[in-house]
């Protein structure tokens, strides 16, 4: 029997690494071809990776939470020739295209977007090419992953039974995030599958807290003689009762370092790349909403205003190639909407915003919000936007310098709504106003173009409806 090392493949997103979520096997287990081997989390999704062979699992690269670099070994197998194997040269259906740059069109700027009718926030919820031999055969790159398909189509995930529980990887990831023991969750899905709603319900009622002892076990447990002593409280007084002089912290850090993973890890790369490649300049002004009639969807108005400004000044609805000093003006408007979650930042794209009415915008945002919360959003929806929107002001802050992520050349930031005293003909009035910040790449457009863009945006927001 021969052993085979399996390297982590590019999971179709061009990212340099992925984090182990859960192994479906342990060392010594026998696995068959194309059975699920491990669940991996990238910056955009939780993906099941199937086994490339049939045989015994000899060694695994790490445990849950470990980061594995694309192209490095993930698992080692002892191939069993008596079990089904993939024929040499057989197409696995998994093909790797060229990887895009870290900062090209990935999730980016940091801020949360307004998504409710009244401005509420979206909640949180390689290896070198194989060399040929004289006999025409190639070395095995070790990154074939069974019948994984890559493309823009959305593929339904299959619930995988692990530990006696059937659930898709995204549900398992959500359970870990919420501190829920998925084995104790009441399943309401088909064939006893645990769904996203089941996990959230268990988190809300506290019926399946991770690490909690079941009631039956508590009843059988012997009584504890005495409760452990409470930890001593820190004090600014010495034993004699006099105030102690404090000193600044030394070189040694008192906290525990935490390795960034998944979405937050990718965000750090994107921000560093944007900082190195963009020449940012920010203009700021206030949109006067005094003329608004009735209750209006603030997000829809912001997006409509951005579309109007893009039509007036197309130079900011563009991509810029700094290496070749070339720009691409877009006839359509795809708006990247920054969504803040506990896991990190997502920037899903609201496609063809220039073709949508207020209802279409709201439905599109709700769809993107649901997909981000459940981590089911396709990778294709997290790239390719032509301009960005960030609403940091729903918490605090009037003006900001949002980060422009290349190849885009502009991002609009909306600050906290406020009531200002405004001078009018014959006196003063109190108007409701929204601070607007426009950050743009000064290599790609002039200050005059940016100022005209901002004026067009403010003019549209000033309309009654």
From TrEMBL:
Identify the keywords attached in UniProt to this record, alphabetized. Answer: Acyltransferase, Lipoyl, Transferase
Query: What Gene3D superfamilies does the annotation carry?
Result: 2.40.50.100, Chloramphenicol acetyltransferase-like domain (3.30.559.10), E3-binding domain (4.10.320.10)
User: Which residues belong to any copy of the Peripheral subunit-binding (PSBD) domain?
Assistant: 166-203
Query: What is its cofactor?
Result: (R)-lipoate
Disordered: annotated span: 84-140, 228-257
Q: Keyword Transferase: yes or no?
A: yes
PROSITE patterns reported in the protein's UniProt record: BIOTINYL_LIPOYL, LIPOYL, PSBD
**Per the record, where are the segments of Low complexity compositional bias?**
118-131
What region holds the Lipoyl-binding domain?
3-78
GO cellular component, as recorded = cytoplasm
Task: Report the EC code(s) recorded for this entry.
Answer: 2.3.1.-
Kind of enzyme, top EC level?
A: transferase
**Origin: domain of life:** Bacteria
The cross-references to InterPro entries, in alphabetical order and at most eight, read: 2-oxoA_DH_lipoyl-BS, 2-oxoacid_DH_actylTfrase, 2-oxoacid_DH_E2_comp, Biotin_lipoyl, CAT-like_dom_sf, E3-bd_dom_sf, PSBD, Single_hybrid_motif
Q: Which family does it belong to?
A: Belongs to the 2-oxoacid dehydrogenase family.
What is the protein name for this chain? Answer: Dihydrolipoamide acetyltransferase component of pyruvate dehydrogenase complex
Q: Which organism is it from?
A: Thermomonas brevis
């Amino acid at each position: 029997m021969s052993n085979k090392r399996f390297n982590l493949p590019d999971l179709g997103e061009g990212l340099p690494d992925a984090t182990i979520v859960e192994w479906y096997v342990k060392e010594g287990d026998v696995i068959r071809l194309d059975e699920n081997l491990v669940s991996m989390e990238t910056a955009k999704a939780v993906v099941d990776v199937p086994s490339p062979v049939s045989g015994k699992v000899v060694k695994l690269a790490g445990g849950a939470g470990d980061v594995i670099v694309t192209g490095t070994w993930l698992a080692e197998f002892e191939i069993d020739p008596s079990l089904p194997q993939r024929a040499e040269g057989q197409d696995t259906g998994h093909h790797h295209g060229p990887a895009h740059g870290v900062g090209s069109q990935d999730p980016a700027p940091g801020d949360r977007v307004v998504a409710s009718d009244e401005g509420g926030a979206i909640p949180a919820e390689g290896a070198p090419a194989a060399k040929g031999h004289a006999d025409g055969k190639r070395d095995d790159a070790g990154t074939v992953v069974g019948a994984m398909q890559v493309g823009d189509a959305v593929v339904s995930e299959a619930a995988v039974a692990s530990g006696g529980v059937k659930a898709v990887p995204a549900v398992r990831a959500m359970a870990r995030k919420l501190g829920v023991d998925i084995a104790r969750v009441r399943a309401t899905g088909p064939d006893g599958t645990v769904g996203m709603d089941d996990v959230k319900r268990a988190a809300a009622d506290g019926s399946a807290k991770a690490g909690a002892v079941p009631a039956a076990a508590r009843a059988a447990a012997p009584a504890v003689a005495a409760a452990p002593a409470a930890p001593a409280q820190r004090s600014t007084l010495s034993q004699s009762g006099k105030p102690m002089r404090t000193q600044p912290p030394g070189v040694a850090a008192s906290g525990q370092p935490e390795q960034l993973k998944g979405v937050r890890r990718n965000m750090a790369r994107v921000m560093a790349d944007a900082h190195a490649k963009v020449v940012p300049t920010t203009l700021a002004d206030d949109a006067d909403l005094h003329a608004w009639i009735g209750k209006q969807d603030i997000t829809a108005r912001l997006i409509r205003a951005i579309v109007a400004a893009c039509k007036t000044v197309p130079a900011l609805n563009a991509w810029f190639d700094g290496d070749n000093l070339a720009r691409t003006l877009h006839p359509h408007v795809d708006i990247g909407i920054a969504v803040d979650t506990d896991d990190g930042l997502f920037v899903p794209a609201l496609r063809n915003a220039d073709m949508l009415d207020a209802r279409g915008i709201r439905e599109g945002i709700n769809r993107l919000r649901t997909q981000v919360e459940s981590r089911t959003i396709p990778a294709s929806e997290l790239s390719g936007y032509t301009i960005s929107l960030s609403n940091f002001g729903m918490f605090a802050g009037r003006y900001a310098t949002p980060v422009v992520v290349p190849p885009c050349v502009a991002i609009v930031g909306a600050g906290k709504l406020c009531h200002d005293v405004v001078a009018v003909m014959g006196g003063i009035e109190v108007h409701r106003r929204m601070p607007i910040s426009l950050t743009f790449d000064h290599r790609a457009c002039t200050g005059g173009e940016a100022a005209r863009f901002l004026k067009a945006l403010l003019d549209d927001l000033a309309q009654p409806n």
